Amino acid sequence: TGKQRCEGFQEWMKTNAPDIKLLEPQYAGEVGLAANTSKALITANSDINGIYGSNEATAIGALQGVNESGKKLTLVGFDSGKAQIDAIKAGTEAGAITQAPVKMGYETVIAGIKAANGMELPPTIDSGYSWFDKDNMTDPAIAQSLYECPHRSCRVSWDSPGRNLSWPIPASRIRRLRDIGIVQVQQPQLK
To answer: The pTM is what?
Structure first.
């Protein structure tokens, strides 16, 4: 998917920012290789002013390479692990696109249950994505999609016999499961 993200980035840039010169994409799916690749790009292109890392490893590697080179430029990443979150907070990475892992899991369960019950599935299921930067990363709508949630409200925890469960399921999703007949919701009995 990193290559597809790169291709989508290039297509968007050619259509929407044709005056910006794009270098040939460099594929480096490992942090150390991405760091070396970004340093080589910076050395070979002294006028470079931005790098896009299309997955967690390349974004972190590019960040490392940029830091080691001493060059000041704009870095944008994809995914939202701790290293990118920290870099965005520190201002060394402008921001990143994050997927919606909770929604991805939720939509996968819904699709699996529907498929198992012979129900029709759409050809594409959009699990969502968000741009995040230091100004919006604590917004609950964004924070729930960060791999390391920056505040406590992202998680709902409860205890069950023998295990402590932690799962963020908004009430709207539970209603949706109920509405399509996958779960039954019982009202709690008050004593």
So the answer is: 0.70
